[in-house]
Structure formats: structure tokens, C-alpha cells
């Protein structure tokens, strides 16, 4: 039975775009989990932030969970072990096709698109004391940290380094751990694939001098030809170390929902995230692209959750074909 306070809150919230969703909570879970990635990375900060925002707004217990990143998140959301998660388009496409290294042969088609997040730039960080200022200067057998095993960074960055002719010793770990190892001289390079600013890099900047290494135009073109990425520039304002925009490549990220979640629940969550970008920017600066008009960055890779599709069609004029919306 609702208390008077909850009844008042519900009445006030009925003015929002997802009013119907709040009035009918049939089948809504009592709590939810957002699958993120390792601590020290953007996924954890961004995902935990929006999980807390949604929990507060809807009056439901919820929070972020540390995971191995996009590939594992697809599996957790597909099976329903996590209600929500975040993924990058490359690992998502592999998972849906049954080609994920997490579970080869399993087509993870019960993870649905919910809302666009941001682009993940691929960038390289070293200590200034290393003297490394370019990809071509990375020494033979350099110890490179590629992030958590199975993450987007670990899946694609080693292949990119191979393509660019870099010979390295591969290391894995959480971004915060790798940042500490770089500072302690246990690593030579960290190859980040994460929304910017990456918390671990920002922390390193405070504690020591670093080099943030950009791709050359030729290296960028080579990577774009070989991998599902687009050209990207890390803005000078992102890090105090940068003196100009840094040339990079990027891959889009989307929030995902278990396809069996009630339409009204997912629609309510999407409205909270997409209707106030300033709140999202307060969670993480990468959220500047978490805006309705970027719905098309899904590009048909992940089937839309019906509740999310309904919100974007009604509020963003999205032209989402019926065959790209999950059918329950």
C-alpha cells in the first residue's frame, strides 16, 4: 500500500513524459543492478552515477556493479543476472552474433538497446619520464596495460598495436591498478579505451607528469580501415597535460536492458536519463553526448527495447523500423 508521501510524489511525477510508466508499475523489479566495468574507469563512474540517479528518482533500490566490461555486461544482461548494463558496439555485435569470447556460440539477443551514451576514444598514456612521445617510440617488448581481460580495450587495442607493428608484453588489470603500476614503473604504457576524461588518467596527472600520445594521421587511417571505429579528437580541455586536441579513434557505447523488463519501467528509466543532460554531465563529462538525437548511433546493431524505442519515437522523432525493435 502506498504511503501518502509516495502518492504525492507520484502525482508530481505524473507531469513527466513517462507519466503512464509511473502510474503502472506492474512487473517492475524491487531492485536493479547496472553492470559497469572496473573501478578507475569511465564505465564504473558513469554507470554507478546513473544507477544512483534512477534509484533516487524512482524510489527503487539500485546501483552499479563492478564487472569485466562490455563483453561480460552483454552476457549478464542477456541472462537477466543484471537488469541493465553498458556495452560498446564492437563487443555487442560479436555477442549478438554468438562470437563473444565470453560465451562462444551463445547469441546474446536478450540484451536490448536502451539509450546512447558516448564515444569511447582509444588513447595511450605513458609517464613523461619514459621519453615515449609517439606510438612508433614504444620500445620492443614494452609492458602495456590493456585494461580488464575481455574489456573493449583488451579486445581491440592489442589488435590495433599488432596492426601498427608494436611488439609488447600484454598486461591486464583494473584501470586504477594499472595506473598505479605505471606510476610505480611496473608498466611502460597504458592503452586506454574509455570515455574521457578517464578517472585513472586524471588522477595520474595530479600525481606525476604524463604524456598522452595521439595517433598520427597515417596510424589513424590504418586503424579505421582495419577496425569498426571512427575518427575522434580528444579535446585539449579534457586533460591539463594536453596542449592541443589529440588525434584518436572511437567506438560508440550504448546502455542496454534485459529485453524482458516491463516496457513502462525501461521507458521511465530512459526518460530520467535523457530528459536532463545537465544532471548526467554532473555525473561524468562524457555524458555530453548522452542526448536524444544520438539514438541513431545504434545503427541497427542492437535490437531496441520496446519501452526505450517508444520513448525515442515520442520524444526524439526517432525513425526506428519495427524490425529493429525487440518482439517479446
From TrEMBL:
Top-level division of the source organism's lineage: Bacteria
Family annotation (Pfam families): NMT1_3
Keyword set, alphabetical order: Signal
Keyword Signal included in the entry's annotation: yes
Keyword match Acetylation: no
Signal peptide: 1-19
PANTHER family in alphabetical order: SLL1037 PROTEIN (PTHR42941)
The protein's name in its UniProt record: TRAP-type transporter, putative
Species this protein is from: Roseobacter denitrificans (strain ATCC 33942 / OCh 114) (Erythrobacter sp. (strain OCh 114))
